[in-house]
């Protein structure tokens, strides 16, 4: 929750003009980011990663077909744009999926989702550095919260269960 509040502080919470549908869609995506890695590790861990990635991308491509039919451009986009989209889709999405599956296998689903909190922080920094966007106090606070939330979420089980001073029941002897 700390990381989520941090992301909200980084991106800002200007809900002016936002409709219920777009906000619901964003909430659905957040839930899917949280649940997806758990499903991968619990139910699909024994399957080849490349097969799961391929099936996932094929299913989402099919889901976009009806949407895209209503959004066709009036003229053919330039080939540079088409190659750019294909490159992003095939190369970078595929590589990101393969790396994400390896990350889930290595550190587990809960720790792997921490990357989704770090992404907006990196995007905001790139916006400031490259696009001359303004760095705000909210962004600074958000970065701190993302770092704290990420550190807490990636602690080992032993660190989370370690009792603090005066809280060790074995030390209480009468």
Please, could you describe this protein's structure?
- With 174 residues, this protein is mainly alpha-helical.
- The protein has one domain (2-11, 24-68, 80-154).
- It has eight helices and no strands.
- Helix 3 (49-69) packs across helix 4 (79-107) and helix 6 packs antiparallel against helix 7.
- The longest helix has 29 residues, at 79-107.
- The mean pLDDT is 80.
**DSSP strand content:** under 5%
DSSP E strands, number = 0
Structural class: mainly alpha
Number of separate domains:
1
Kindly, what is the distance between the CA atoms of the first and last residues, rounded to a whole number of angstroms? 39 Å
List keywords for this structure.
174 residues, mainly alpha, 8 helices
In short:
This protein is an all-alpha fold.
Topology, pairings included?
Layout: H1 2-11, H2 20-43, H3 49-69, H4 79-107, H5 109-112, H6 115-131, H7 137-153, H8 157-161
Helix pairs in contact: 1-6, 1-7, 3-4, 6-7
